[in-house]
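Hey,
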Amino acid sequence: MWKVIFNRVISVGAILTVAIVSLLVLKKNKELMKLEADLELSSVRSRLGEVAEYAKDAIIITDKHGCVSWTNNAFTQITGYELADVEGKKPGDVLQGRDTEIDTVERLHNAVKNAQQIEVEILNYHKNGTPYWIELAITPILVDGELQRFIAVERDITTRKNLEFRLKELATMARAETDNKSHFMSLLIDELRVPLNRLKNINEKLRLDDSAENILEVHAGINVCNSFIENTILSIETLENIDLNNFRIYKSSFRFNSIIENLRKSTTQIAGEQNLDLEFKDELSQSVTYYSDSSLINSIFSFYISSVANKLEDVRY
């Protein structure tokens, strides 16, 4: 009986001993693996040397899963994060933000997943929340065909990207300015056709009837045409010299009623010369003072009123 119990105790003790030894071996293996990993990382850093430590470009070393194990000084200068802030984390989880392009993030994810080299430009965020652009190059490190880690190099290209965005903005503005000028030029050319056609009709009318009464009427018509042509030429010359990027509006206080009165006088004269019925109503308050470029406003109204009168007279002819 005691012999059986003794044998069982020995068996249990042997099992416990094996288990304890196995745990100790496993622990030692883990410690050894960590030491080997640290040694290999130290070896990598040693090979990179002080150039990497103090380079202007940020350098990040991650494990094979993409989690940060080391960064250089430039990383902290560019991102605001210390190694302790990001160690064990994936860089994208810390640095990417609201306006980071999803397509670029997916490309990075796929490259890391497939242990592929990749270069992208991506918007990241500083620790204080300020956005900045980097040129990012990620290289997988393989030993005997097995992925060991990734090395990422980041270069701050914020100044260049801002310049690119500004150039695109200026190009868009230039195209818009050209399109607007072309459209307005077409309108002005169309305005020129009307008085020129009217002059042809007046000339034909004078050829058929050269009486004194008709000559006076023709003279009045020529004066109107001349006025329209001069105004149109002035508009073309003004348009030619307009630079929308440096366009200035000269503001001053004025009463809108004075502009309306000038327009009333000029349009009444035009209407009278062309035998057009004109009803002019001024319902603006006399007590309101405006602050803007009165000359520019007057020119705009004058152009469109003349244009309408021109069209009406053209229809009559």
